[in-house]
Amino acid sequence: MAVRGCVTLLFILLSGIVYADVLVTSSIPAASTPSKHTSAVTTPLPTTHHNTTNSTTEAPTTPHHNTTNSTTEAPTTPHHNTTNSTTEAPTTAHTNATTAPTPPPTSSPVPNPTVGNYNVKSDNDTVCLLAKMGLQFSFKMSENASFQTLNLDPSPNVTEVNGTCGSGGSDSSLVLKSDEITVHLVFTNVSQKFRLHALMLSVNLTNGNVFNASNNNLSLWEASVGSSYMCKKEQSYNITDKLTINTFELQVQPFAVQNNKFNTAEDCVADEPDNFIVPIAVGVALAILIIIVLLAYVIGRKRSQTSGYEQFDS
User: Fold this and answer.
1) How far apart are CA 153 and CA 110, in angstroms?
2) What is the SS3 assignment for the chain?
3) Are strands 228-231 and 220-224 parallel, antiparallel or unpaired?
4) Residue 120 belongs to a domain
5) How far apart are CA 301 and CA 191, in angstroms?
6) What pLDDT is stored for residue 222 in this prediction?
7) Number of domains in the chain
8) Residue 250's Cα: distance from chain center in Å?
9) Which residues on neighbouring strands pair with residue 129, listed in sequence order?
């Protein structure tokens, strides 16, 4: 009786072990086939047989995930076309340096001179020579030197006036002298025509040098005796190759002065009005007259034609 009970108990235990083994084996799924969307292969976990009484341990099932092996590529560094720029130090041009000649300092333009009034009196205190002018002198010390320009200051406290009165065929003269400039003008009377025939100039320069120039064969400022010579516009006269004088508002009368004033003036060519103004005015007047005649002719012709048409219609 006891033996039967032991056998029965052993049978029950073996049946339980076999049943437990069947449960464990059936609960583990077969190797999962890879999804057509995945490239990973799932390996089945091994089953573990626990000889335990009345307990079975089931291995966890691995869920089938549609996994995609995504490969993350490291960001590529853009290839820059780098240029190895080499900054070269500026090279100093090797030139044969030559010293350029220093240009002479440019002087500011000399303004026009002040116009002065001068007169020479005879022994009886009668005015025998009248002159009104502004004088400017341009001269050079040598052929290669540049011209220097000076104005004569007519102020009585600067320039002294002297001269001689001409009569009986003798010459008259005007001498203007300052600390810097001395100019001597000589007028002659030939056949009742006077003219400037000689000029002498002396200039004391600040460096101690003295400039001297003269011309005794001039024929300037010519007019009839008893009248004056006038030239208001600026005039330039070459006295020598080293001396030029400029006159401004010139009027002189070296002979036959009456009542201490200038007589009728004879104008220079520069002051005379342009001779072409009169022909131009006459030409314009004739052109206007011709246009008026043509217009009158056209208007009269149209009127005559209109009146002829009216008579024909009637």
Assistant:
1) 13
2) CHHHHHHHHHHHHHHHHHHHHHHHHHHCCCCCCCCCCCCCCCCCCCCCCCCCCCCCCCCCCCCCCCCCCCCCCCCCCCCCCCCCCCCCCCCCCCCCCCCCCCCCCCCCCCCCCCCEEEEEECCCCCEEEEEEEEEEEEECCCCCCCCEEEECCCCCCCCEEEEECCCCCCCEEEEEECCCEEEEEEEEEECCEEEEEEEEEEEECCCCCEEEEEECCCCEEEEECCCEEEECCCEEEEEECCEEEEEEEEEEECCCCECCECCCEEECHHHCCCCCHHHHHHHHHHHHHHHHHHHHHHHHHHHHHHHHHHHHHC
3) unpaired
4) yes
5) 67
6) 95
7) 1
8) 40
9) 120
Q: How far is CA 26 from the centre of its chain?
A: 105
The whole-angstrom separation of Cα 56 and Cα 20 is 7
Distance of CA 162 to the CA centre of its chain: 53
Answer yes or no: are the C-beta atoms of 95 and 117 closer than 8 Å.
no
- The domain that contains 177 carries what CATH number? 2.40.160.110
What are the per-10-residue average pLDDT scores of the chain (314 residues)? 61 62 47 40 42 42 43 46 46 47 64 96 92 96 92 95 88 96 96 95 93 96 94 94 96 94 90 67 89 89 71 54
- Of 245, 244, 246, the C-alpha closest to 233 is 246
Q: Is residue 217 part of a domain?
A: yes
**C-beta of residue 246 within 8 angstroms of C-beta of residue 236:** yes
Contact 143, 240 (CB under 8 A): no
Are 161 and 120 in contact, with CB atoms under 8 Å apart? yes
User: Is residue 202 a contact partner of residue 176, using CB atoms and an 8 Å limit?
Assistant: no
Host domain of residue 132? 116-141+148-266
129 within domain boundaries: yes
What CA–CA distance (Å, rounded) separates 182 from 120?
16
Query: d(Cα 273, Cα 159) in Å, to the nearest integer?
Result: 35
Token pair, residue 244, equals 């030029």
- Please indicate, yes or no, if residue 61 is contained in any of the structural domains: no
Distance from C-alpha of 245 to C-alpha of 250, rounded to nearest angstrom:
12
